[in-house]
Specification:
This protein is of the alpha/beta class and 527 residues long. The protein is built from 16 helices and 17 strands. A 5-stranded parallel β-sheet has the order 2-1-3-4-5, with helices on both faces. A 5-stranded antiparallel β-sheet has the order 7-6-10-9-8, with helices on both faces.
Length: 527
Amino acid sequence: MAEDDIVELIEDTRSAPSADEGRRWKIAIIDDEPAVHEGTRFALSDYQLNGQGLEILSAYSAAEGRELMRRHPDVAVVLLDVIMETDTAGLELVEFIRSELKNETVRIILRTGQPGQAPERRVIVDYDINDYKAKTELTADKLFTALTAALRSHQQLQRMVETRRGLEIIIEAASALFDFKSMQRLAEGVLTQIASLLNVDCAGILVLREAEDTRETFSVLAGSGCYSRFIGADASQILDQDLRRLVEEAFVRRKHEFSPRRSVLYIRTLSGREVVVVLEAARHLSDTDRALVEIFCSRLSIAFDNVILYDLKNPLGVILGRTEIVKEMIAAAGALDGNVQAQLAQIRGAANQLTQMVDDLVADAMADALDITIRREPVDISMLVEEVAEANRPLAARKKQTITVSAPPNHAAMCDADRLREAIDNLVSNAVKYSPIGGAIDLLVAQTAGGIMVEVRDQGAGLSPEDISRLFGRFQRLSAKPTAGESSTGLGLSIVKRIVDLHGGQITVESPGPGKGATFKLTLPVT
């Protein structure tokens, strides 16, 4: 039987892919030996992980590999030969992928037929690769094991990157959405931010039902894509039957519902208003997407009620303005006696008092929007710090920075691992963000009289006394700027302090001054 017949037989006996199997892991074989490509494809012909098969791409030189990786940034795993055009072609391609393409999530498995040309220990230390195999040892079973481990690692990294990006967008959106002064502008902003959060073009519609509205009516506040024609109309009258059913069911169900084609989000504000968002996305929403959308929606009820508070401020501003005009008119008529002045002062004082009350309500609402709760459990702080450092090393490597960790084992505390990771990650990512190219970032875990201390020291722009005095406030932007143009919301350190406070801990910062770096110390009680 010819080899071509064998390949044809394998293709004929495979069942038609289901909807889930339509999504495949994309891997790249970059090797100058055609037999390696053929053998790998044969060994992995029936591979599946989490119900997904493989899409295998091939390149037969490092130059072809560069173009392949440019065209396919979503490759999950690269099976890479070391020696191709030159003895170091594969290693140079690794540097290209990590430094020029800035692709940090793809997992790279080096396969070499001449191990002596690229000693394993030196390659692992000097290059950002994830596994190293001699071709002679890579049997079909070992290839299966190595690929599965790499795909799972890629999946975890993707979730981490998506979650971090999503949370940054949510934090940024919190500031932007609270600036909207009209209900329609807010609704438009919500649809825009959801599309940005999911990183996908999507059609959407946002409808509002007023509190205590006993009628089956609701208004369209915003629409995008095919739904934009409904804006400003009585949705209960003009929506097509299927869409209206989705909205009405959401008002009854009062919770989110995710389906392959459409997602329906439900939000109830503190004032009793109800909001439903219907989305049609161009791709399947992952579990991470759904979790981020739920976090985002949990912040929206405050934003919608804030618009009402701002609406209340507008007439108060009119009252204050007209009071001044009346005062000037009476004065011009020569009738501004003491009694009139006292009456105008009372009007102005009452309006100012109401304005302050509204401002306080807005401030409280902002605090509620960033409310944080914790769940305590035993956590190995040293291990957690190591994990945070490892997650930030790819970002640091792009700026040729080093992250060193001194974390002796067995430093445990009762805390919320996820929240504490968020706090420490914020400090470390800030150190990366504000440190110069080639800078050093040092992490230390130590036992002190006050509990377990986590120290983050950088060689960044440092802090002025004014910066330190307002460092942990919300929406504070410091005099220093990120060294590679990164964005900053001004919310991160306020969240860090909130997390530390909830744990009964302390956070302090020291800096000799601008240009001399900074040291953050986070101390947690052991129990």
